[in-house]
Amino acid sequence: MSEAEPTPARGPLSAGEYAFLICTVLFWAAFVIVLGKDTSWDFRNYHWYGPYALFNHRLGIDVAVAHQASWYNPYLDIPFYLLATHLPAWVAVGVLGAVQGANVVPLYLMARHSLRLPDVKLWAGALAILGQAGALTLTEFGTTYYDNVMSVLVFAGLAILVVKRETLREGAMKHAAGLSLLAGFITGCAMGLKLPEVPFCAGFAAALVALGGSWRQQAVRLVAGGIGGVIGAALFAGPWMLHIWELTGNPLFPYWNDYWHSPLALAEPYRDLRFVPSYRPWWQQLLFPVLFTIDWHVANDLGFQDIRVLVAYFTVIGAGLVWLFRRQNRDPLVRNDAALPLLAFAAVSYFVWLRLFAIYRYIITLEMLAPLLVVAAVGLMPGSRRRRLLALGVLCFAALVTARSDFLEHAPLDDPYIQVALPPIAHPERAMVVMAGDAPMGFIATQLPPQIPVLRIDGWMVQPRDASGLTRLMKARVAAHLAKGGDIYLMAEAADMVRARKAVADYGLAIRLTECQQFDTNLGGDYRWCPVTKTNRRG
Q1: Other Cβ atoms closer than 10 A to 512
Q2: Are 531 and 515 in contact (CB under 8 A)?
Q3: Which one of 15, 142, 296, 394 is separated from 411 by 20 to 30 angstroms, measured CA to CA?
């Protein structure tokens, strides 16, 4: 098959293909329903609390309930929150699983329109399914981390470039501009909803360039795609950032506060830099995929084992060298005009991710794309078609048999979605709750009577002696509440009670330990509810 021959299966989808895609989406919906409710740390911390706080105007009442995440953009969490509060739990979870399973559609379309293989539909389907069987991709099904929800948008933008690449490269300028604008808008929406999608916006720009054509065509695509991306990002991030800016003086509060200097936080970046390898020797930066494949702790908080990103990393580098020295195979397995934007997207996205985050969870988009990337890269290598297909078979088999997903704990699908057995509160109208410790308790705060303010006086974001504006604000509010004769209660995880005693002591308070009560939730955890009294000393 020569490069000049048309790619098979470039017409409309057949009934069989529609059936395959629909059945795959329904399978993942059922898979997630079987798993049950997400009880992950992030869900209990802020994915439920965020939309609750938005709808109930809690940003002016509560303080740091969900640590730094108290100020995250909650728009992404709104659909699931509304589903779970108005419909049976299994319906909400099933819809979430279906959306996450929808990654199969752009993955299939990209493979279908780029492969140069017999039985291309079968190959495309296999690569799409293999892409969704990655270790961390499986772990995130049914969870509200949303990395595999944002990937649907990112893949949709990229699929437009791959499927419509001839129009984008050779068609009328207005058509190329329109398609670029649409694809950029979709990709920008992902970044607006979740800022860690920034690397894929850079990768999208690289893919626009890699489509080729004259410099004028490339410029038109970049400008149109950039405009679309800015509109999409501004649509979902702009209103929230303006609101947070007015509230705190930092549109990304508390992040990069060493630049924005909000008086509520310390002059620190507040970023999670645990995994960023820029401080490591150059060879460790170069071999970072090897390190996190051997030991997931290097780049993630969620356990996994998967070699596909490592394989894609080295095969893409190899393909780049082959292309640089003009040694690419004259019989590629993926059409060259499709392989280039795919490889450029992956390479630039990975590089930006490595510099900004280096958290593996943020690149499960590349984990899902890895099978197609490996086919594209190996397909460019020298050698007979038979040998390259054999090599791909070995690599795919190795990826399947060595992958390990550490599935998170899930809870039964009972209703209502959140259930907390809080002790009765005699006078909620004069009560205040303080939290201490790092445990996720945002979901519990949503079950308190709405007139009760909740202040996390101790946690990741603030500590009683940190001299931040938030701490000064909370100490003033606690003092004013006590001066009015109000009641104060402590909420903390049982394991954090020693830390909690020290935290309230710094506020001139003491826990009435003999009156503490244990309470449970339907998402697990061992929590304590304790009345707090004023003392005559401060730490």
Answers
A1: 12
A2: yes
A3: 296
Residue length of the chain: 539
Asked if pLDDT for residue 92 goes beyond 70, the answer is yes
The Cα–Cα gap between 427 and 188 comes to 47
**487-517 pLDDT per residue, tens:** 999 999 999 999 999 999 999 999 999 999 9
Residue 72 has which token pair? 């995250």
pTM as predicted: 0.95
- Phi, psi of 62, rounded to the nearest 5 degrees: -90, 165
Please tell me the distance from the alpha carbon of residue 300 to that of residue 313, in angstroms, as a whole number.
18
Q: Beta-strand (E) ranges in 80-151?
A: none
37: left (phi over 0), alpha (psi -120 to 50) or beta: beta
Structure tokens at 502: 């020290």
Handedness of CA 457, 459, 465, 471 (dihedral sign): negative
What count of Cα atoms within 13 Å lies in the side-chain half-sphere of residue 4? 0
Give the burial class of 509: count Cβ atoms within 10 A of its Cβ; 0-12 exposed, 13-18 middle, 19 or more buried: buried
Whether 485 and 430 have beta carbons less than 8 Å apart is answered as yes
pLDDT in tens, 114-170: 999 999 999 999 999 999 999 999 999 999 999 999 999 999 999 999 999 999 999
Collapse the DSSP code of 525 into the 3-class scheme (helix H, G, I; strand E, B; otherwise coil) and give the result. coil
Tell me the one-letter amino acid at 225. Answer: G
Q: What count of other Cβ atoms lies within 10 Å of the Cβ of residue 404?
A: 12
Distance CA 75, CA 87 (A): 19
Strand bridging mode 431-435 / 487-493: parallel
Exposure class string for 108-121: b at 16+ Cβ within 10 A, else e: bbbbbbbbbbeebb
* Residue 531: both structure tokens together: 């009345």
Q: In the numeric block, which tokens belong to residue 152?
A: 């649907």
pLDDT at 7: 45
Candidates 116, 128, 141; CA nearest to 371 is 128
Burial class of residue 320 in the structure, from the number of CB atoms within 10 Å of its CB (0-12 exposed, 13-18 middle, 19+ buried): middle
CA-CA distance, 369 to 361, in Å (whole number)? 14
**What tokens does 353 get?**
């991710």
Instruction: Identify the three-state secondary structure at position 492.
Output: strand
Strand partners, 318: none
- Neighbouring CB atoms inside 10 A of 357's CB total 21
319 vs 56, 72, 270, 292, CA distance in Å? 53, 39, 38, 22
Q: Considering Cα of 512, then 513, then 516, then 520, what sign does the dihedral take?
A: positive
Quick one: the chain helix, strand, coil %, rounded to 5?
60, 10, 30
Q: How far apart are the C-alpha atoms of 33 and 97, rounded to whole Å?
A: 8
Cα angle for residues 428, 431, 435 (degrees, 5° grid):
120
Its sign, for the CA torsion 474, 478, 480, 484, is positive
536 pLDDT band, cuts 50/70/90, is low
CB 244 within 8 A of CB 252: yes
| Three-state secondary structure call for residue 527 | strand
